[in-house]
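Hi P.,

Sorry for the delay on this. The queue was packed all week, but I finally got your sequence through. Input first:
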Amino acid sequence: MIAGVIGATGYAGAEVVRLLAGHPQVTGLVLGSVSFEGDRMENQYLNFQTAVSASLESPAKVIEKSGVVFAALPHGAGESYAQAAVKAGVSFIDLSADYRFDDDEDTFTAWYGIPYRFPALRARSVYGLPEMNRAKIRARAKEGPVIIGNPGCYPTGASLGAIPALVKGIAGEGAIIIDAASGVTGGGRELSRSFHYAECADSVGPYKTGSHRHTPEIARNFQMAAGRPVPVIFTPHLAPMNRGILSTIYMPLADPWRVFSGTPGAVRPPNAAVEEQAAHIRDMYAAYYRDEPFIRILPPGAAAASGRVRQSNFCDISIHLDQAGSTLIVVTAIDNMMKGAAGQAVQNMNIILGYGEKEGLEHIPALF
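Then the structure:
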């Protein structure tokens, strides 16, 4: 199968290229770039020397020559290419926000400032968080060429950490608070002042507090899992690292002591009671994600950390409780360029084309 990548020279696009170059089902690559058309991929990224040899072509040529197309473009730039791909009978995996909100144009326009250019394409699109939407992804792909709205990086980490508690009714009615920190590659290849070394090295700070565009995507996922609106407070931070996202998610428990309902009158030290409750919730998470190839529930005493999923498609999840046992604290770690972008896009390709879901993604996390 020949795979195409439009926007191949951005960070996310280049990561897709790296993964596809080692994918056992991919027999060739067609790479496109509006900014660098006519150049070669291995000139843009010298790490591809002797591994990837490809000229950078127009998006139209990429669609014409490919069996599946990935688009790593700015928001609003890919809709015309999606339309061309579907018309050509080719599935389109979009790493921007253009297809993350299905037919909810009002929310998309409110947060991204642009309307849908081709609303009819929403009938071919599906939100691509496999752990939440795998059956719908497969069903839509059986109907013909499909458009995948690849999830945002922050929503991936936050959603995977909260969905089991919301589905199982463990999370209470209050707001869910998410503090998350991302590496600088999340800002893309184009340089801005905040990403200069002198500005971001040796410093961690919040940005777009209360107004980050990933907030409505997180809230939508939480509502789908819970079956009700869920208040969300999301604060992203820029961390002085290249890759990774660490999310700490605080959820009020619906019934903090229900684990002891079968033993009235039992007396336990507070710490032992909290540990028992945490173990109960950890077991529930492990059961919920038992068949998910990229979810790892960490053992008691371990905390998720971004460095332990580097260059992999894993999402590590650790379960904690506050001292009172009334607030569930879930920590998730992903590589923002992998499970948060390119890795998840390839995972979606595997699903819609009927390949093994782990093909091309069975990387052991890098140590350093």
